[in-house]
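Dear colleague,

As promised, here are the two records you asked about, laid out in our usual form so they can be pasted straight into your sheet.

NAME FIELD: protein one
SEQUENCE, THEN STRUCTURE:
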Amino acid sequence: MTNRLLLLLAALIAAPALAAEVTPTGQAITPTAAPGAIFQPLNPDLPGDPSFTAGQAAAMVLSPDGKTLLILTSGFNRTFGPDGKLIADRSNEYVFVYDVAGPAPVKRQVLTVPNSFLGLAWAPGGGRFYVSGGVDDDVLEFAGAPGSFKLARTLLLGHKSGLGLAVKPEAAGLAVSPDGRRLLVANLQNDSVSLVDLQTGAVVDQDLRPGVIDKARAGQPGGTFPRAVAWISDAKAYAASQRDREIIALEMGPGGARVTGRIRTRGQPVALLPGPGGRLYAALDNTDSIAVIDTAADRISEDIPTAGPPGAAGKALGGAGSNALALTPDGRTLLVTNGAQNALAVVRLGARASAVAG
């Protein structure tokens, strides 16, 4: 399963062609792939456009049993006719459902969603998964099995607008609690998180800005543009404030979420991943690094560079754009996608120090 996950990660970030491409600087880029890598176009099988391929594959999650992979697009998959008008039934985002139990991924189903923005998560049992609806300010719940998933519910988050002038809400990253009873959603344009009771559908919103929580702290920065969330237990979760460069600790009680701490980061956190031993990994996209958070003390215990091993081309220039994370099943290796490099960093994790191995 580890090899298949690596190959699918590579397929999402690698260039579609193997021919060398000359850049404006005169350097030639020759994309390479691991031996045995498999590349498949994300074709949603549109009846009126069978050759159409979807772009902007922005999130993917493996099922709890490791046999099904979901890939979510979030971008501009829009089609216009000769008259310049939008063709509505060909202009959507998609969830691709792949069977990855065998040696090669097999597409079992393609689900259409009107809008999305990064959020994709399985329920612990594997019979349900959730998709954030982006500007629709909702979460879509799908239930069933590979090949027969169907929309079960649309969970409305209740924001009339985003913060600012003519700004729409934006449901972004989301995560299901370990016991499967609650869903936490990052509201990118409302500087808040929503806690959803998955039994009743009830939603409780928690603002993340210091001055809103405590009027005495009015004007203090913090909590804006939350992009990702993660649970480490049924009682504790974290939210990543991209703009303010902080990870926010949340106590998850029966009545909602409560901010209990703020962890400053060097760069902008865009993805979170819980790990073994009480660790939380945060991808910092503009500093080419991963912050390792000790969740018992709510402090950063390590900062891992991700641009490449010593001597890697372009490492000193920065801009690798670390933006997604995955752990191998044994928890010893961290896989990091560097979006701006079209590369995958393989990080060997250690008790005291970790380093990019390739």
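NAME FIELD: protein two
SEQUENCE, THEN STRUCTURE:
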Amino acid sequence: MDRYGQILVDNYPTYILTGFPNEMDNENWNFSVISACTAIDTTILIDNFEDIFAGVLFHLELLEI
């Protein structure tokens, strides 16, 4: 709190979950468990997961060493 009694910082618990596509046997089940624990909709979890592991294209000239 500052000197006027205003809250400057809220300390909310933060968790970082990492999932690798090749290690997930049943993605739907994993997302439903995470959704039940965090109250985050499964569609949001799936969209975030797919965005992180989207393919990356490199220009061939950049790959030449």
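A couple of things worth noting about protein two: The two ends are 54 Å apart (CA to CA). Residues 1-65 form one domain.

Best,
R.
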